[in-house]
């Protein structure tokens, strides 16, 4: 099939905007070919951007991301309900479809480009001591930007939510909603009672892998861990990663849940629609409308039944506060009339991790960007949906392990490991260093000497941190981002657990199976840690505090809990306390962070939240 001039121009525009010039320019140009593949893979085609929306809908959903796309799909299943989805960003583009290019989407126009506030306890190797916090400003939200890893968390997470006073949120119900979404295409999981087929969300392994991930899983068995489905009966163990991909291409929630319903008459989507306020009647205390800007023009659309806030753990609390719902003293600082005094923006949690733990190998088995034959790799991806471009942002395997701090049962691991067949310098400093915001001193000292060399990485992350951060307004201007205080390592046990996780990662790297590659630890010291003995607990703590890495999982800022919980913002039906017809359905509602990557749990939350809405309104008829 010939590549049209229109597609070439579109691809060229997207490529230059994202990556500039260099090695990846040639294959990225050809990524335009993926356009014609949509006709084969996604017969529904792209979501329609409704130019002229109506003045009133039954339900208005704010945010077309991992949660909002699911809610829009499920609510519009009721033909009598008119549903509007408002998304601040544009549609997906050619590049978002390619799994291996996840890092190139960060810091682009599809990213809110948030940064944490400096605390002096973490992110010390980053510019101005601030970590980048990528968030999707695009249809599909962060599911269009993320590394696509499909991880559900531990069953004890959800049983704990229920024990906190949230009936209906235990593991059995969570499993029902995980399975409702899922179309798992891994043949060995076909008969598993923990998985299902036929759902909207495609889950499968990358069709391409390096021998390093096979060795990683085998190393786990050497240490006494099982190679198992970590989304099955037990979580503890090692696994080749499953991801939200479909025939080698990203399967965002936009592709999974919105494209199939694009022609529903009762469903409208408005992109590039930046919501600035939820309008609440101060007499009835009902959410009655939403204010947003589109093409520079302010618009207001009314909600007959409900406003559903699915803008994510950063933007949802910001919007609530801008609308007069939040800590009263904080709102008054910015002259915002207080409608409801609630602890919005508290309880911020994230999976903090350690980047930069690097192992060199003697064989050409890792991903080295400059060594990949551009034409061959790209052609294989475009025509067959195979090859290195199908890797899940570069992550090939993960593991859930127990440190000495973990639950004695061994069934509730406290550390997750991500394994990647590459290093921070496998792209010779082209993009990954920018995504992390590493200083020139740290990159040039530690990673430039091994640029373009075969290497692999283990990234330990803390599954259930005790530290809590906050989201706060910086301004009453809705177009300015909020202040993000991740507050990493406020509780000293958090960094202590990560040190133990790092030591286990080192044991994995020393397993017999890695000897065939000549694997060895890269030992150049981080400049800020030169005074410490390399490999000591003190050194690893220093490393963790310097090359601190978010795993892009902020949650908890509109906490779900009973009315007796002073930190709760929403009840077990996800309704905002004291405000009628307003719900939050996204990662914000998590009382505690789940033990693993958060995208699949957010989709589960959206599935359940949609049923809660249906039950309330259909029962009232």
Automatic annotation (TrEMBL):
<dbReference type="Pfam" id="PF05199">
    <property type="entry name" value="GMC_oxred_C"/>
</dbReference>
<comment type="similarity">
    <text>Belongs to the GMC oxidoreductase family.</text>
</comment>
<keyword id="KW-1133">Transmembrane helix</keyword>
<keyword id="KW-0274">FAD</keyword>
<feature type="domain" description="Glucose-methanol-choline oxidoreductase N-terminal">
    <location>
        <begin position="136"/>
        <end position="159"/>
    </location>
</feature>
<dbReference type="InterPro" id="IPR007867">
    <property type="entry name" value="GMC_OxRtase_C"/>
</dbReference>
<feature type="domain" description="Glucose-methanol-choline oxidoreductase N-terminal">
    <location>
        <begin position="312"/>
        <end position="326"/>
    </location>
</feature>
<dbReference type="InterPro" id="IPR012132">
    <property type="entry name" value="GMC_OxRdtase"/>
</dbReference>
<dbReference type="GO" id="GO:0016614">
    <property type="term" value="F:oxidoreductase activity, acting on CH-OH group of donors"/>
</dbReference>
<keyword id="KW-0472">Membrane</keyword>
<keyword id="KW-0812">Transmembrane</keyword>
<keyword id="KW-0285">Flavoprotein</keyword>
<dbReference type="InterPro" id="IPR000172">
    <property type="entry name" value="GMC_OxRdtase_N"/>
</dbReference>
<feature type="binding site">
    <location>
        <position position="138"/>
    </location>
    <ligand>
        <name>FAD</name>
    </ligand>
</feature>
<protein>
    <recommendedName>
        <fullName>Glucose-methanol-choline oxidoreductase N-terminal domain-containing protein</fullName>
    </recommendedName>
</protein>
<feature type="binding site">
    <location>
        <position position="275"/>
    </location>
    <ligand>
        <name>FAD</name>
    </ligand>
</feature>
<dbReference type="GO" id="GO:0050660">
    <property type="term" value="F:flavin adenine dinucleotide binding"/>
</dbReference>
<dbReference type="Pfam" id="PF00732">
    <property type="entry name" value="GMC_oxred_N"/>
</dbReference>
<feature type="transmembrane region" description="Helical">
    <location>
        <begin position="12"/>
        <end position="36"/>
    </location>
</feature>
<dbReference type="InterPro" id="IPR036188">
    <property type="entry name" value="FAD/NAD-bd_sf"/>
</dbReference>
């Amino acid at each position: 099939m010939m590549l049209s001039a229109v597609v070439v121009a579109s691809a060229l525009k997207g490529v230059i905007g994202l990556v500039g010039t260099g090695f990846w320019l040639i294959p990225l140009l050809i990524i335009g070919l993926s356009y014609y593949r949509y006709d084969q893979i996604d017969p529904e085609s792209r979501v329609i951007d409704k130019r002229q929306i109506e003045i009133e809908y039954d339900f208005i959903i704010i945010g077309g991301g991992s949660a909002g796309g699911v809610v829009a799909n499920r609510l519009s299943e009721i033909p009598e309900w008119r549903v509007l989805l408002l998304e601040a960003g544009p549609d997906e583009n050619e590049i978002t479809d390619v799994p291996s290019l996840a890092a190139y989407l960060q810091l682009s126009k599809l990213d809110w480009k948030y940064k944490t506030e400096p605390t002096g306890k973490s992110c010390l190797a980053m510019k101005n001591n601030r970590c980048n916090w990528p968030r999707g400003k695009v249809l599909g939200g962060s599911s269009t930007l993320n590394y696509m890893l499909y991880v559900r968390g531990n069953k004890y997470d959800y049983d704990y939510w229920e024990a906190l006073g949230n009936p209906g949120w235990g593991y059995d119900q969570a499993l029902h909603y995980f399975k409702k979404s899922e179309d798992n295409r891994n043949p060995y999981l076909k008969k598993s009672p923990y998985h299902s087929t036929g759902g909207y969300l495609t889950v499968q392994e990358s069709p391409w892998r390096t021998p390093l991930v096979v060795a990683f899983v085998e190393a786990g068995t050497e240490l006494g861990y099982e190679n198992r489905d970590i989304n099955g009966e037990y979580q503890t163990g090692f696994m080749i990663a499953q991801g939200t991909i479909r025939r080698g291409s990203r399967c965002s929630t936009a592709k999974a849940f919105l494209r199939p319903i694009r022609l529903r008459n009762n469903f409208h989507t408005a992109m590039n629609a930046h919501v600035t306020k939820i309008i609440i009647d101060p007499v009835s205390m009902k959410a009655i409308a939403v204010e947003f800007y589109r093409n520079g023009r302010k618009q207001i659309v009314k909600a007959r039944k409900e406003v559903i806030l699915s803008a994510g753990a950063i933007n949802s609390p910001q919007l609530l506060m801008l609308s007069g719902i939040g800590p009263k003293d904080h709102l008054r600082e910015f002259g915002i009339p207080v409608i409801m005094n609630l602890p919005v923006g508290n309880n911020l949690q994230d999976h903090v991790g350690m980047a930069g733990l690097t192992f060199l190998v003697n064989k050409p088995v890792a991903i080295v960007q400059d060594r990949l034959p551009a034409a061959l790799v790209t052609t294989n991806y475009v025509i067959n949906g195979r090859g290195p471009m199908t890797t899940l942002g570069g992550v090939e395997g993960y593991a859930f392990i127990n440190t000495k701090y973990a639950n004695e049962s061994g069934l509730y691991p406290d550390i997750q490991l991500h394994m990647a067949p590459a290093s921070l310098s496998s792209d010779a400093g082209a993009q990954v260093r920018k995504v992390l915001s590493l200083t020139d001193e740290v990159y040039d000292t530690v990673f430039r000497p091994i640029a373009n060399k075969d290497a692999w990485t283990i990234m330990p992350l803390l599954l259930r941190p005790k530290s809590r951060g906050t989201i706060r307004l910086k301004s009453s201007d809705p177009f300015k981002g909020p202040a993000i205080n991740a507050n990493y390592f406020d509780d000293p046990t958090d960094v202590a657990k990560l040190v133990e996780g790092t030591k286990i990662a080192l044991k994995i790297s020393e397993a017999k199976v890695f000897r065939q590659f000549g694997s060895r630890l890269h030992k150049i010291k981080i400049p800020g840690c030169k005074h410490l003995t390399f490999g000591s607990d003190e050194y690893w703590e220093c490393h963790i505090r310097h090359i601190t890495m978010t795993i892009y999982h902020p949650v908890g800022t509109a906490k779900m809990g009973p009315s007796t919980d002073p930190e709760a913002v929403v009840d077990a039906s996800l309704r905002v306390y004291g405000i009628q017809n307003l719900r939050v359905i996204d990662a914000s509602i998590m009382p505690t962070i789940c033990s693993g990557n958060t995208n699949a749990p957010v989709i589960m939350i959206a599935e359940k939240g949609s049923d809660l809405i249906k039950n309330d309104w259909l029962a009232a008829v």
